[in-house]
Amino acid sequence: MKPSLQHFENLLKKKETGAFKMGGAVLEDIPADEEVSSMKFAGSTLVVVAESRQAVIDLIKDDIYVKSGVWDLEKAQIWAAKIAFRDP
Asked: 86 in a domain, yes or no?
């Protein structure tokens, strides 16, 4: 199975538990089209419900993107947030 398919399978499982609320790529610029090959990736973002930084790490450490080096847990920026509003 391709790493990206394993990645999305894993994310969907975590989403179903309620831990992952939103996620996606951070892009350097607005893409000209929907072709992944034309997008300039700057990173990733996740909105996660967890009790601690370590709990977030525990949720993502088994992802294929971590295991294959796409995501570097040592450089991950994990921030607590107090959301003022949301639009489902």
From this structure: no
Which CATH number do you get for residue 9?
3.30.70.1060
77 confidence band (pLDDT: 50, 70, 90): very high
Per residue in 5-19, is it b (16+ CB within 10 Å) or e — as a string?
eebeebbeebeeeeb
Question: Shortest CA distance to 25 belongs to which of 45, 7, 4, 5?
Answer: 45
Backbone dihedral angles phi then psi of residue 2, each to the nearest 5 degrees: -65, 145
Buried b / exposed e along 22-50 (16+ C-beta atoms within 10 A): eeeeeeeeeeeeeeeeebeeeeeebebee
